[in-house]
Amino acid sequence: MTLGVIGKKLGMTQVFDEQGLAIPVTVIKVDNIVVTQVKTVEKDGYNAIQVGTVPAKEKHLTKAQIGHLKKNQLENFRHLQEFRIDNPQDYKVGQSIEVSILENIEKVDVVGTSIGKGFQGTVKRWNFSRGPMGHGSKNHRAPGSIGAGTTPGRVIKGKKMAGNMGNERVTVTKLKLVKVDSENSLILIKGAVPGPEGKLVTIKPSRIKWN
Amino acid sequence: MNPIINELEKQYLDKELPDLNPGDTVKVFVRIIEGNKERTQAFEGTIIKKRGGGINKTITVRKIFQGIGVERVFAVYSPRVEKIAILKRGDVRRAKLYYLRELSGKATRIKEKIEKRG
Fold first, then answer.
1. How many cross-chain Cβ pairs, A to B, lie less than 8 Å apart?
2. Who's near A18: CB < 8 A, 6+ residues apart?
3. Cis preceding linkage at A152, omega within 30
4. Which residues of chain B have a CB within 8 Å of the CB of A10?
5. CA-based angle A198:A201:A203, to the nearest 5?
6. Label partner for B36 (CA 20 to 30 A): which of A50, A117, A141, B26?
7. What pTM was estimated for this model as a whole?
């Protein structure tokens, strides 16, 4: 129920703290973020604001998207996203959201899309054990039995099998916020965040209580 | 690497460092905080390894202390490393001098590099 920011993951590096210790950090660049719609309980059934970021050419958007943005004389955005908040009446369409909203916050949650690994077997995808590689064994990376026989006569739902791995929404919680650079719209977060470099990630104040 | 990250790292690369190469005998001055007192400690030895670039650069320095080999890794751009003095340039044919770990006494000596003139 809090407002966050959307930024592009640039990559990782390290910085030194005041004690001289090297801290691994992920650098996130926040582009121009603009409120594109305000949603209220009376009108839409829930409280939220919709924001847009990453400027796009008109030919990359659908007519519906262009119409939605043109209604309020906004520029074209490639990425639209909602934040559920308690006080949507405090925001106006066209207002921009700055990185500085994260200042004085200690820990954040980061949402991203994990790196796609393609179609992977059970060893990589579910950490199954591998069979012996020698001594006449032909069972190297096979999944093994996937269930009993006539009873139940089917494979149970949710059975761990080979398939597409990665490229899914991942949230990492309680990451330490090392620095917020409002001047350059940069955010430094300790440790790794989901996704490849160049992808968008959402950064929100951590909703988990910590000691 | 991303130009914005390069720019970010630059503010930490403010230190003037000599050319550090494997085989060189160096004296590294490290700041140590004991309680609330701060003092500088020196570590003298041979560089057996250097790795990383930019802010990530580290050197591994090896010396024999009381008959026991001691190796320390220094992040050279860390504010804890005050300065690095080169005592001797070594003439070696390897990038990583791991072979020194198996040697002791006179065998661990490294030929000094003599700069060619003109």
1. 39
2. none
3. yes
4. 2, 4-5
5. 140
6. B26
7. 0.86
- Select the residue from B1, B5, B6, B36 to test the A interface by mutation, using most A Cβ atoms within 10 A: B5
Output phi, psi for A124, to 5 deg. -75, -40
* Interchain pair A184, B4: CB under 8 A: yes
Q: Which of A13, A43, A11 is nearest to A28 (CA)?
A: A11
Q: Let me know: does B20 contact B59? Beta carbons within 8 Å.
A: yes
Q: SS3 for B105? A: helix
The count of residues in chain B is: 118
pLDDT per residue as tens digits for the range A60-79: 999 999 999 999 889 999 99
- Interface check for A29 against chain B (CB to CB < 8 A): the answer is yes
Chain B hits for A16, CB-CB cut-off 8 Å, are: 12, 75, 77-79
Is residue A99 within 8 Å of residue A37, measured between CB atoms?
A: no
pLDDT, tens digit (0-9, with 9 covering 90-100), for A158-174:
999 999 999 999 999 99
Cβ-based neighbour number of residue A207 at 10 Å = 13
Which pLDDT band, with edges at 50, 70 and 90, does A1 fall under?
Answer: low
Task: Give the separation between CA A116 and CA A92, rounded to whole angstroms.
Answer: 37
